[in-house]
Amino acid sequence: MKVERVKGTRDFLPEEMAKRRWVFERIREVFERYNFHEVLTPTFEYTELFKLRSGEEVVKQLYAFLDKGGRDISLRPDMTSSVARLYVSAFQTAPKPIKWYYMANMFRYEEPQSGRYREFWQAGVELIGSDRVEADAEVIALFTESYLATGLEDFTVNIGDRVLLDEFARMLGVKDDIGLMRLIDKKDKLTREEFVNALKNFGLSDEGVEKVLSLVEIKGEPNEVLPKAEELFTSEEAKAEIRRLYELVDLLDAYGVSKWIRIDLGIARGFDYYTSVVFEAIAPNDLGIGSIGGGGRYDNLIEVFGGKPTPATGFAIGVERLIPILEWKGLIPEVKLRPDVYVIPIGKEVELRKTAVEVVSALRRAGVKADVELTGRKLRKALDYAGRLNVPYVVLIGKRDLENGNVTVRDMETGEQRVVKKEDVVKELVGALGL
After folding, report:
1. Residues that bind L-histidine, according to the entry (predicted)?
2. Are 293 and 316 in contact (CB under 8 A)?
3. Do β-strands 156-161 and 261-264 pair in parallel, antiparallel, or remain unpaired?
């Protein structure tokens, strides 16, 4: 049997992990500045949890199985359902709003492609307990600033609205509004001809198809799009939702992120649980990567899971889609997987090896990235190894130096060597490294 990696998954080597950690740390810093707090739910849940409101497409992609007790279990395809379950089980009486964030892996059985895998990571937030537009603005501003924290600036956050899409479905006389939403959500994955055929197969007339095609083209700057929306939608519910969008845009301007905000009435998002504002981030690229994250308001989900009616909103950033774009743009700093100091005992005597351990330990306690020769190589090969790692400084511990209480510090770039007292070597190197 050939032992190999499962399709749709990846092994991350140290260089890749360093890049991923850098991205996660930038995003985490912003999440916590906005006073969101980290949670983590189980990797698997009862399958029924995801069937309740995740959406037909996601349910088809579940990694579902019966465990040894015969229970129907699924690996999580998203975190929102799990967070809602956590809230219902233990936090319904907690002070509101609840502001939680997560960074975790998800699983969906879908065909791997650029930026899409069967195991993938997301960084996201859930804000539970406020139905006000201020909560939408807080979450969308955080969404925007999370990307900016990674150095990405060439992107837009496109805002749509499920209330308006539901109204549009009623205007078309469509009874299966969820089905229409799913079709609209897939529009960017289809050619125009495929999209038109899908709409016709759904049962729309030529006139209905043209109206859908016109709707999905209503996008751009808020001050251009929202007046068009006022002309198109005339019900009181739709008018109230448009007023909410105007207020949302004003608040996002106050947050200082309006430069990146667009309105796109053709955004549906793939989950059935969204109830109002929805949004996604798009960064132009040549990698074949579409949306790099998205979210929206889901005011009914808590109730579906047995909780009291509770408004909520949130988003998820697609890390697997974001990182390739950051790399393509050269925004992730160069990874340096090396110690700053390498300690080499010159000889096999116990005292030399013990002193090497003492020195490397003292350096580490002082905050210096330090390593020690562990293979027993002779000096020349140990120095060659340090050179290949591009280590700035080497500490040489020889018998004669040690007898005098000294060690030798070698600058690997210049080749210069200087003898220092053993007790001063940490201070010497900390200063040389500028730490």
Report:
1. 78-80, 108, 122, 126, 269, 273-274
2. yes
3. parallel
State yes or no: 126 annotated in a binding site.
Answer: yes
Query: Within the chain, how many helices (H) and strands (E) appear?
Result: 17, 17
Task: Please give the model's pTM, rounded to 2 decimal places.
Answer: 0.90
Give the separation between CA 276 and CA 265, rounded to whole angstroms: 12
Residues of the chain with CATH 3.40.50.800: 341-429
Calpha distance 121→107 (Å, rounded): 9
- Copy the structure tokens of residue 166: 């539901």
Within the chain, all domains assigned CATH 3.30.930.10 are found at 14-329
CA distance 114 to 91: 38
- Judge whether 417 is annotated as a binding position: no
- 145 labeled binding residue: no
46 labeled binding residue: no
Using alpha carbons only, give the angle 37, 38, 40 rounded to the nearest 5 degrees.
145
CB 130 within 8 A of CB 95: no
Here the tokens at position 168 are 């549009």
* Whether residue 218 has pLDDT greater than 90: no
Class of domain 341-429: alpha beta
Do the annotations mark residue 78 as ligand-binding?
Answer: yes
Domain with residues 14-329, CATH architecture? 2-Layer Sandwich (3.30)
Residue ranges in 222-365 assigned as alpha helix (H):
222-232, 236-255, 301-304, 319-328, 350-365
- What is the token pair recorded at 253? 């301007």
Residue identified by tokens 């209905």 is 208
What CA–CA distance (Å, rounded) separates 184 from 172? 14
**pLDDT tens-digit map of 272-302:** 788 999 999 999 999 989 999 999 999 999 9
Distance in angstroms (rounded) separating the CA atoms of residues 424 and 100: 47
Determine whether the annotation assigns residue 113 to a binding site: no
Which pair of tokens denotes residue 424? 């001063």
In order of 13, 147, 161, the CA distances from 274 in angstroms are: 37, 23, 9
